[in-house]
Amino acid sequence: MPKHLEEYPEVLDAAQVAELLGLSVDYVRRLSRQGVLPAKRLPGGRTFRYFRDELVEWLREQDVSASEALDPAEHSEAS
User: Fold this and answer.
1) pTM for the full predicted model
2) Which domain holds residue 32?
3) 14 in a domain, yes or no?
4) Which tens digit of pLDDT belongs to each residue from 29-58?
5) Are the beta carbons of 40 and 6 closer than 8 angstroms?
6) What are 1-40's pLDDT values in tens digits?
7) Crossing angle for the helix pair 14-21 and 52-61, nearest 10 degrees?
8) Which of 10, 43, 45, 52 has its CA 20 to 30 A from that of 70?
9) Looking at the 3D structure of the chain, how many domains does it have?
10) In the prediction, which pLDDT does 6 show?
11) 50 class by beta-carbon count within 10 Å (0-12 exposed, 13-18 middle, 19+ buried)
12) Are 42 and 78 in contact (CB under 8 A)?
């Protein structure tokens, strides 16, 4: 069962972001490397961290075009 937003910590790792957004961890990491998701890279490593509030704001700013709406959950955990 998905958690309520308030149950997630203020700073999230990629697995928590994947759970929150309903995406795979690999896809979250790819979006982070591409600069699509608002992520912070920890010094000296490949690890990303995410501020929960920045992710929510980013999600609110996203628009869905008709062509994207026709391809349901291409990158969900089910795939």
Assistant:
1) 0.74
2) 8-63
3) yes
4) 999 999 999 999 988 878 999 999 999 999
5) no
6) 568 888 899 999 999 999 999 999 999 999 999 999 999 9
7) 40
8) 52
9) 1
10) 84
11) buried
12) no
